[in-house]
TrEMBL record:
It holds the Pfam family Catalase-rel. Residues 8-396 form the Catalase core domain. Keywords: Heme, Hydrogen peroxide, Iron, Metal-binding, Oxidoreductase, Peroxidase. This is catalase. SUPFAM superfamilies: Heme-dependent catalase-like. It catalyses: 2 H2O2 = O2 + 2 H2O. Its EC number is 1.11.1.6. The active site is at 55, 129.
Length: 490
């Protein structure tokens, strides 16, 4: 029989009894001198860290990305893509957006699809969703939008009034609402959905030529979705349905995979494209910019410890590597600030040292002059100089920017974004509705009207219906009829 290891206190002293507290005699009260008891209770009290302010419910796994198309060097100098068969380790965290920890996986909500590539040039994070578009086009509206989706400050429940009131004042969300209340609004599992980088990014090749790019992760398991009724039944029985499914699939060796594809737009096209290519409420037509295959992403390892690797993961859209950079997308620009800031609050300044966050693809890890701070648990740079420039061969700048600068002109101020020839808030929502089969339209209308009919104020309902009507007359009228019927049934 193997020898059991000795249980110790945090300071390493042997624990003599882990079943009974120290007491004053067999019948007496517990003693303050029971250090092991006090330490154990105190640690337990501090187990929770702040949950993510959005995307709190999540599942994660590790795996790798393998290049299948070696012809990408003409668009980008990212080393990750420079050779057929090249493998890069990845971490992927899936999530729902609005619910707090414990909320069911089966909610009708966009799913986060956040991928970290541990490249030799540092971590490249694509922090996207399972939808190619978003509700908003300017980050300044994000906190208000999220407040309208989360619990009301007075009732402490999600309020249809708030969800639809905000929407009724935000016509640009019509496209994403059509996605969300359609069939793809509730994936059957995390394995059976696509992922999108959603934003437009810039790719820069070795000749310093720039392209605009959008990323698509196409599921190789096929798309499978749940109806509202199926989701309610499954979520009621097993709120962690998606977590359980992902974990079980990987454990039994059924590794889920996605084909990574890109839409690439030559730089010069951006000014004249029929939609503003930096507007996150719009997609680029696949006819205009067809998908190009890049490689295959596979998940094949469940984390040994959920808290260590998934809860402490801090993905950040600002994590670029040479060959890729931001576009002028206003949402993306706001996000470039938000995630690092969130991680410094949620996990602390040294979260970048945690194993899941450290740039493990870079030989020797990160090298810079940042020092100290709460919970610095590596060697803190040891004896090396903590300033730069220095005369002691410390790390120095590369003189290689990740992306290229963007030309700008004009006077600083607050501007409505530039509209391109076919831009308005409704055109792509209408097109999406018309793409759906009659049965899918029926489910979409039922899902929207079921939620909208719960709103207490008629003016909010009418404003919301007007957006759907502007997208497609039939779409709006069907919702209006369905809402009317539901409200008069009560
Ligand atoms: C998580 C802010 C828009 C996808 C988060 C978090 C914050 C945040 C603060 C929590 C991060 C953490 O604590 O680690 C914002 C702001 C946005 C915005 C300010 C608008 C300007 C978006 C958009 C997408 C998105 C447009 C997708 C297209 C995600 C995902 C996560 C997340 C996937 C979870 C990351 C993970 O798994 O750790 N967001 N967000 N967000 N956001 Fe956003």
């Amino acid at each position: 029989m193997s020898q059991r290891l000795q249980l110790t206190t945090e300071a390493g002293a042997p624990v003599s009894n882990n079943q009974h507290s120290q007491t004053a005699g067999a019948a007496g009260p517990v003693l303050l001198q029971d250090h092991h008891l006090l330490e154990k209770l105190a640690r337990f009290n501090r187990e929770r860290i702040p949950e993510r302010v959005v995307h709190a419910v999540g599942s994660g796994a590790f795996g790798h990305f393998e290049v299948t198309n070696p012809d990408i060097a003409r668009y980008t100098r990212m080393k990750l893509f420079n050779q057929k068969g090249k493998r890069t380790e990845v971490f992927l965290r899936f999530s729902t957006v609005a619910g707090s920890k414990g909320a069911p996986d089966t909610a009708r909500d966009p799913r986060g699809f956040a991928v970290r590539f541990y490249t030799e040039d540092g971590n490249w994070d694509v922090v996207g969703n399972n939808t190619p578009v978003f509700f908003l086009r300017d980050g300044i509206k994000f906190p208000d939008f999220i407040h309208s989706q989360k619990y009301d400050p007075y009732s402490n429940t999600q309020e249809p009034d708030n969800v639809w009131d905000f929407f009724s004042h935000s016509p640009e969300a019509t496209h994403q609402f059509t996605w969300l209340f359609g069939d793809r609004g509730i994936p059957a599992t995390l394995r059976h959905m696509d992922g999108f980088g959603s934003h437009t990014f810039q790719w820069v090749n070795a000749n310093n030529e720039r392209f605009w790019v959008k990323f698509h992760f196409k599921t190789n398991q096929g798309i499978r979705t749940l109806t509202s009724q199926e989701a309610e039944a499954i979520g009621g029985k097993d709120p962690q349905h998606h977590q359980r499914d992902l974990y079980a699939a990987i454990e039994r060796g059924e590794y889920p995979s996605w084909t990574l594809k890109a839409q690439v737009m030559p730089e010069a096209d951006a000014a004249t494209y029929r939609f503003n290519p930096f507007d996150l409420t719009k997609v680029w037509s696949h006819k205009d910019y067809p998908l190009i295959e890049l490689g295959r992403l596979e998940l094949n390892r469940t984390p040994d410890n959920f808290f260590a690797d998934v809860e402490q993961a801090a993905l950040d859209p600002a994590h670029f590597v040479p060959g890729i950079g931001p576009s002028p997308d206003r949402m993306l620009q706001a996000r470039l600030f938000a995630y690092g800031d969130a991680a410094r609050y949620r996990l602390g300044i040294n979260h970048t040292q945690l194993p899941v966050n450290a740039p493990r693809g870079v030989p020797g890890g990160s090298r810079n002059y940042g020092r100290d701070g709460h919970m610095r648990f590596d060697g803190n740079g040891g004896r090396h100089k903590n300033y730069e420039p220095n005369s002691f061969d410390g790390p120095a700048q590369s003189n290689e920017a990740s992306g290229l600068g963007v030309s700008v002109s004009g006077t600083t101020g607050t501007y409505v974004p530039v509209r391109h020839a076919e831009d308005n808030d409704y055109v792509q929502a209408g097109a999406l509705y018309r793409l759906m089969s009659e049965e899918a339209r029926e489910r979409l209308v039922a899902n929207i009207s079921g939620s909208l009919a719960q709103v207490s104020r008629e003016d909010i309902i009418q404003r919301a219906i007007e957006h759907f009507r502007n997208a497609d007359e039939e779409y709006g009228s069907r919702i209006a009829t369905a809402v009317h019927k539901l409200r008069h049934q009560r």
